[in-house]
TrEMBL record:
Keyword Hydrolase: no
Residue spans crossing the bilayer: 20-41, 69-89, 109-127, 310-327, 339-362
Originating organism: Sphingomonas guangdongensis
Pfam family, one: LptF_LptG
NCBIfam families: LptG_lptG
Protein name: Lipopolysaccharide export system permease protein
Length: 366
C-alpha cells in the first residue's frame, strides 16, 4: 500500500486543500476584525486615560492584542467553521457523492483537509512561539503600568511573595540573581498558629550566609501595637535567592523553549511545576487541535443533502467541536489545580475526541 492510496488524485487533493485553506483565511480575517473591534471598544478608555496617549498607542495595542486574538480562540474555531462550510458546500453540490461514486472512502475525501490542517497546526505553533508569546509578555507589562511608558527590563521582579513555614516574606522589588540579589521594600510577616504576631519592615536586603541581611529594620508587635528598631539583623533563615527570582513565571508570555528552561530551574529549586508542565504540553496539543477539526466536522460532509438533514449534520459537527474546546479548557484547569497529571491535562481531550471523531465517521460512512 503506497502513500498515494490514502489520497484522491493530485487535482482533487489540491482542489480540496485550497478550498479549505481559503475558507480558513476568510473566517480568521472576519472574526479577528469583529473581536478586535469589540476588544478595543472595551479597552480604549483605559489606554487613552493615561496622559499623552493617543492614536499611536491605540495602534500599538492592536498590534500586541491581535496575535492573542488570532491564536486563541479564533484559529482553532476558524478551522472548525471552515471545515463545516467546505464540507457542507461540497455536499450540497453533490461533489461528495461524485467522489464516493469514484471509489474514494470517507477517509480519502478528508485526507487533503487533514493534511492542510496539519500545516495550519505547524504554522500556528511557530506563530505562538515566535509572535504570540512576545506580544503577550509585552502587553502584560504595559498593562501593569496602566499603558504608560514601559520601563527597561533589567530582569527585576516586583511585588514578590515567598513563604517560609508559617511566615510570609514580601519584597516590593528584587534585582539581580544568586549572591548578587538585592531586595527593596522588605516585609516579613511572622505567624503562629495562623495568627499574625510580628511584622518586620526593612528598606533593603541582601543574601548573607543562610539568610538575608536587612537594613534599617523595624519590628511591629501586633499584640501590643508597639514598634521597635532592630538595626540590620539577619532574617529569613533558609530562604534562597532563587525563591524570589523564580516566583513569577507566566506560561503564556514564554516560548516553548523558555518555558521548558524555567520549569527546569523551578524543579532544581524544589518548587512545584505541575501546572507549568501542563501549559508546556498544551503549547503542542493546542495548535495540533486543528487536525481534529476536519474529523469532528466530517459529519456535515456525508449523507444525502436533499434529505433535509444537512443542517442538523452541520449543527452536530459544530457541537462536537465546541465540546472539544470545553473539554480542553476543563482539563487544563484541572491540571492547573493539580487534579490531573500534566500530560493527561494537555492530551486527554485531544485523544478522546480523536477516537470520538473516528467512531462517528466509521459508524456512519465506513
Amino acid at each position: 500500500m503506497t502513500l498515494n492510496s490514502f489520497f484522491p488524485s493530485r487535482t482533487i487533493t489540491w482542489y480540496l486543500a485550497k478550498t479549505f485553506l481559503v475558507r480558513i483565511l476568510a473566517v480568521v480575517a472576519g472574526m479577528a476584525l469583529i473581536l478586535q473591534t469589540l476588544d478595543l471598544l472595551s479597552e480604549s478608555g483605559r489606554i487613552l486615560a493615561y496622559e499623552g496617549n493617543g492614536q499611536a498607542q491605540i495602534l500599538r495595542y492592536i498590534s500586541l492584542r491581535m496575535p492573542q486574538i488570532v491564536s486563541w480562540p479564533i484559529l482553532p474555531f476558524s478551522v472548525l467553521l471552515a471545515t463545516i462550510i467546505t464540507l457542507t458546500t461540497l455536499n450540497q453540490n453533490s461533489e461528495v457523492i461524485s467522489l464516493k461514486a469514484s471509489g474514494l472512502s470517507a477517509h480519502q475525501v478528508l485526507a487533503p483537509l487533514i493534511v492542510a490542517a496539519l500545516g495550519v497546526a505547524i504554522v500556528s505553533f511557530a506563530f505562538n512561539d515566535r509572535v504570540v508569546a512576545r506580544a503577550t509578555a509585552t502587553l502584560d507589562t504595559w498593562r501593569k503600568v496602566d499603558y504608560g511608558p514601559i520601563p527597561v527590563d533589567r530582569g527585576d521582579r516586583t511585588n514578590v511573595w515567598v513563604r517560609r513555614g508559617n511566615d510570609l516574606i514580601h519584597a516590593s522589588r528584587i534585582s539581580g540573581r544568586g549572591a548578587g540579589a538585592r531586595l527593596a521594600g522588605v516585609s516579613l510577616y511572622e505567624r503562629e498558629a495562623g495568627r499574625l504576631t510580628y511584622v518586620i519592615l526593612a528598606d533593603a536586603g541582601r543574601p548573607e550566609g543562610n539568610g538575608w541581611r536587612v537594613t534599617n529594620a523595624r519590628r511591629f508587635d501586633v499584640a501590643s501595637g508597639r514598634q521597635s528598631a532592630l538595626g540590620n539583623p539577619l532574617v529569613a533563615q533558609g530562604v534562597r535567592p532563587d525563591q524570589f527570582t523564580l516566583s513569577s513565571v507566566s506560561a503564556d508570555g514564554l516560548s516553548f523553549g523558555a518555558l521548558s528552561a524555567a520549569i527546569d530551574d523551578l524543579r532544581d529549586a524544589g518548587r512545584p511545576t505541575k501546572a507549568l508542565e501542563g501549559n508546556l504540553w498544551h503549547k503542542l496539543s493546542g495548535p495540533l487541535s486543528a487536525v481534529l477539526m476536519p474529523l469532528l466536522g466530517a459529519v456535515a460532509a456525508f449523507g444525502v443533502a436533499r434529505s433535509g438533514k444537512l443542517f442538523i449534520r452541520a449543527v452536530i459537527g459544530m457541537a462536537l467541536g465546541f465540546a472539544y474546546f470545553v473539554a480542553d479548557n476543563f482539563a487544563l484547569a484541572m491540571g492547573t489545580l493539580g487534579a490531573y497529571p500534566p500530560f493527561l491535562a494537555a492530551w486527554a481531550p485531544f485523544l478522546l475526541f480523536l477516537l470520538v471523531g473516528e467512531a462517528v465517521l466509521i459508524r456512519t460512512e465506513e
